[in-house]
């Protein structure tokens, strides 16, 4: 949801079938992980996505993806030859 831009907590909470405090707890975990940031605008808390840590994880996973793609291809060939 936040990939489309910042959003007030109430709007985020309205999209889920859970309590507002429950959504708030989830957002707190994401905030602590550095994946979202929050600012106050009057009485509202406005959340926005911080995608940089996700890009770092994607780059890290991409290195392992090359390794596993090769290994799984070899396994697939072996299984075709040895049913």
Distance between the termini: 45 Å
Q: What is the CATH homologous superfamily assignment of the largest domain?
A: Winged helix-like DNA-binding domain superfamily/Winged helix DNA-binding domain
- Secondary-structure element string: EHHEEH
Count helical runs: 3
Q: What is the total domain count?
A: 2
Decide which structural class fits the backbone: alpha+beta
Largest sheet: 3 strands, antiparallel
Kindly report the CATH topology of the largest domain: Arc Repressor Mutant, subunit A
Radius of gyration: 20 Å
Number of strands: 3
Q: What is the overall shape?
A: elongated
Largest sheet strand order: 1-3-2
Average pLDDT metric: 91
At a glance:
The chain is an alpha+beta fold and 83 residues long. Strand 2 (36-41) and strand 3 form a beta hairpin. It has helices spanning 9-14, 20-32, 52-81, and strands at 7-8, 36-41, 44-49.
